Amino acid sequence: EEYNEIARHYRIKETVGSGGFAKVKRAVHLPTGETVAIKIMDKVALGADLPRVKTEIEAMKNLHHHHICRLYQVVETSRKIFMVLEYCSGGELFDYIVQRDRLSEIESRAFFRQIVSAVTYMHYLGYAHRDLKPENLLIDDEQNLKLIDFGLCAKPKGGMSDQLYTCCGSPAYAAPELIAGKSYMGNEADLWSMGVLLYALLNGFLPFDDDNIGMLYRKIKSGKYDTPDWLSSESLILLKQLLQVDPKRRITVDELLNHVWITKEMGVPVEWNSKYQTSVLDDDVVTEMSVHRKVSRETMKAELEKWNYDYLTAAYFLLLKKKTSGRPVRLQMTL
Ligand SMILES: COc1cccc(Nc2ncc(-c3ccc(C(=O)NCC(=O)Nc4ccccc4)cc3)c(OCC3CCNCC3)n2)c1
Predict the structure, then answer these.
(1) Could you say which of 131, 149, 190, 282 is catalytic?
(2) How far is the CA of 53 from the centre of ligand 1 (A)?
């Protein structure tokens, strides 16, 4: 009976992944036919971590970016929290790299620019991610990356490093100042993780790796890593600026946006502003929904502008997604 409300509008399919507190299932939004991901969390299992989920949900309501996984709807029952999220049909960037051994500099640059766009957007809104790694970067059906935070680690800037031990998995992407237990700036730590990510894209393996956690920490703090001969000199320069052990000497997002490696063959700096403008409601979608619900456009607009993240918000975002993908803006069965 916990699934009744969610089952009214979604047909639940297979599990696509599970992590500490959550299980993620693929599902179909029945009124639009669109595929979504539903993250299911058990409130009892979450225990003291329940407030973190609420924080994350509020954060996601403010994070509207084409390279950040979108939240469509939240359903809370007595024992469960369901987050209806954007589904990425290409799976994890991690698997994509593993399948190809390593990516070319051209493909690495295309992906890395999207990561820079999403992270810069977050930082400008005052958020740090703290768990940037290929498992938290998903590929959508247009080969675009979508940043997620599966481990409930996204926190507003600044924070204690105990977050790392309690919620973030492998420290292979963690900045030296973070694992040293010092207080640290979330955005500086994100820049380090982006260095580890770029290294993983270009090489197909990690700059700092060891089965022994103590050895791994020593390698991270040393800041020394192998430089295979396929790396270009510009790649080496950028990696050196990102994987700077001293956070105060590390490159900043502003310097990253138009870095010579980032703009090479692209000609333009990274555009980090969001392509989504949620302030103005889309007329076609409002029309389809008001006709379907047999209410006036004004009534439907007023309802949508509450942004309750209920089934109306989900229908709106999913119809809008259909429209931008060139599919008909049509609602099927009763909404
Ligand atoms: C094709 O085969 C496949 C194979 C695999 C996956 C897919 N697709 C597919 N699509 C969508 C998801 C998903 C999206 C968002 C969230 C989430 O937790 N959002 C919350 C969120 O993003 N906060 C946030 C973001 C930025 C800043 C602040 C907060 C959770 C899951 C998924 O998950 C599967 C997991 C499995 C374990 N590793 C991580 C992904 N998988 C498809």
Answers:
(1) 131
(2) 15
Q: Which atom of ligand 1 is nearest to the CA of 94?
A: 38
ipTM exceeding cut-off 0.90 for this assembly:
yes
Taking only the tens place, the pLDDT of each residue in 27-37 is 999 999 999 99
For 4, list phi and psi in degrees, rounded to 5: -55, -55
Give yes or no for residue 53 CB within 6 A of ligand 1.
Answer: no
Looking at the whole model, is its pTM more than 0.90? yes
**Above 70 in pLDDT, residue 154?**
no
CB neighbours of residue 55 within 10 Å: 14
**Ligand 1 site, residue 145, Cβ cutoff 6 A:** no
Q: Which one-letter DSSP state was computed for residue 137?
A: E
Q: How confident is the model at residue 163 (pLDDT cuts 50, 70, 90)?
A: very low
Please state, as a whole number, how many other Cβ atoms lie within 10 Å of the Cβ of residue 212.
Answer: 9
DSSP 92: B
Give the start-end residues of each E strand in the chain: 10-18, 22-29, 34-42, 71-76, 80-86, 127-128, 137-139, 145-147, 155-156
- Closest Cα to atom 30 of ligand 1: 150
Catalytic site residue 141? no
Strand blocks (E) in 19-70:
22-29, 34-42
Ligand 1 center–CA 138 separation, angstroms = 7
Q: Which two tokens stand for residue 96?
A: 């994509």
